[in-house]
User: Fold this.
Amino acid sequence: MVSINSLLRPGLEDLEPYEPVRPLDVIARELGIATDDLAKLDANENLYGPIPAVREAAANADLHIYPDPAQVRLREAIGDYLSISPDSVVAGAGSDELLDLLFRAVAPERVVTTPPTFGMYRFLAGISGCEVVEVMRGEGFELDEPGIAAAVRDGANLVFVTSPNNPTGNLTTNETVASLCKLPALIVVDEAYAEFAGKTAVGLVESNENLVVLRTFSKWAALAGLRVGYAVCAPSLQANLMAMKQPYNVNAAADAAACAAIEHREEVFVTVRALVDERDRMVRELSRFEWLVPHPSQANFVLFRVLGHDVGRVADDLRRRGVLVRTYSRPELQGYLRISAGRRQDTERLLAALEESAG
Ligand SMILES: Cc1ncc(COP(=O)(O)O)c(C=O)c1O
Assistant:
């Protein structure tokens, strides 16, 4: 009998899996709690959900014909939203797909990540079989610019910077991005949470051919389930990415919903501002638990350092009470919890669960 492993790429069995969040209904069933009674504060989603006009656009999308492979309407809408040319935009099935495309476009031997950060870069590097150079962030989670420059000197040609960073919540300034762009590497600034910070490096793309800014509709527009994100980059790279992508990568419902989110952005931004306010209220309310030390955040989540308590036990206690928060297996994130900002009722559930489990 032919062994299947002999047919597969070497090293496939050693892949480090991505740690995804688990489906809400599965967790609800396990806990014996209705899904509506869970406070899902573990994946930085917008718990207000899409506004009615966006839901309606998705519901009315033409599902029997293929979506537009050239993404004309969507790229024009994004161009209008960011005051850029649609020729610098390529959309995908979530920004995750654009990350995957970038790996395939560059085919790097070595990439730079800046932990603690989003795990997808390392996961995709594993799949592409390239070496990961981890340039650790400093005490305040700021980037180690000289460390990144040294890694590029040593042969890395793809650099991932997340701003605001997940899970630490801090921004990288445009000054730092501009200085990184002087390096001979493709600099990818992942701005999945930019709408919560109101800051962006998109304006630097025109003068830096080696800069790609990634954005998504998953967070601010509450469309994580539909999968739609995009890259902003030089038109020459955009043309290559458009040529490489799967033709129908953004499905018809996602395309329609994303266009509607942009058209009705003032209404969507009401929920973005509400999440930012609730993040700040959560931090104020949690200050009564002195063992939870927040790191300042510009995103829709907060990283807390947990003092004198076992993080796994805290998260389990919360979970049993229907409150889901994020913990990590990575060594640099031991002793930390990340809690997403939710609606007022989600914060109230979190507070009640913490009071109960402390009591
Ligand atoms: C920094 C960062 N980039 C990208 C993503 C994925 O975004 P998308 O849903 O558009 O694939 C996430 C999701 O958690 C994220 O935190």
In short: The longest strand covers residues 211-216. The two ends are 61 Å apart (CA to CA).
